Amino acid sequence: MNEPEAGLRGRLVDVGVELVAQEGAQALTLREIARRAGVSHGAPRRYFPTHVELLSAIARRGFAQLADRATAASGDGTAPPRAQLETLGRVYLEFALDNPGMYELMFRHDLLESGHLGLRDTSLPLFGVLVDLVGRARPDGDARLVAGALWANLHGVAQLWRWGSLQLATGADDFTPLLRSALDAHLGPETTR
Questions:
Q1: Distance from CA of residue 26 to its chain's centroid?
Q2: What are phi and psi of 114, to 5 degrees?
Q3: Would the pTM of this model clear 0.90, i.e. be above it?
Q4: How many CB atoms lie within 10 A of CB 138?
């Protein structure tokens, strides 16, 4: 792919990232992305033969952003596994609340092709970090299953917090106690806090 083609491909993804941030995943049509990129409505098909491939490329950017935040927050990785899990959980929840459109798109595997464009290569390592930390924090359990349940719990916290439901139900004004409760539920109570 020559430089102008690579530039247009990247610009289409950039425009999609901006659009999902401004208007949510439902606004991500090929026609609207092309219009905002200043190209004909058929131009995106040269680089993304299907709408799903373009959505997957946009979601890959979101996973890369989340991974960058998680890496930056994790420091040197020498903190105890539970502390690292709390940090990772906080990063996940903050990302979800700061980027609701991208967050929705990233986890809509019914809309994405995770095997194309390296999406799976970007998303699965994040889950791998979670599995590793859960395995170290709770060596007596099936780390993949516990990590999956913890992830589902955090995903639910993110959604319900964004909708205002958890604040109403719990009276909480910060998700930290919910994050810690989720960790307690999946890892057992922390012995020192």
A1: 17
A2: -70, -20
A3: no
A4: 19
Q: Which own/partner contact pairs does 114-122 have at CB distance under 8 Å and 24+ positions apart?
A: 114/56, 116/52, 116/53, 116/56, 117/53, 117/56, 117/57, 117/60, 118/60, 119/56, 119/57, 119/59, 119/60, 119/63, 122/60, 122/63, 122/64, 122/67
Convert the pLDDT of each residue in 78-96 to its tens digit: 999 999 999 999 999 999 9
* Alpha carbons 181 and 115: distance in angstroms, whole number: 34
Q: Which residues of 100-112 are buried (b: 16+ CB within 10 A; e: fewer)?
A: bbbbbbbbeeeeb
Q: Quickly list H helices, the chain.
A: 3-23, 30-37, 44-47, 51-74, 81-98, 100-106, 119-137, 143-162, 165-170, 176-187
Phi and psi at 192, nearest 5°, equal -130, 135
Instruction: Name the nearest CA neighbour of 69 among 43, 48, 96.
Output: 96
Given the structure tokens 């994405």, which residue do they identify?
112
pLDDT band at residue 117 under the 50/70/90 scheme? low
Centroid of chain to Cα 172: 24
CB count within 10 Å of CB 61 equals 18
Structure tokens at 96: 């979800």
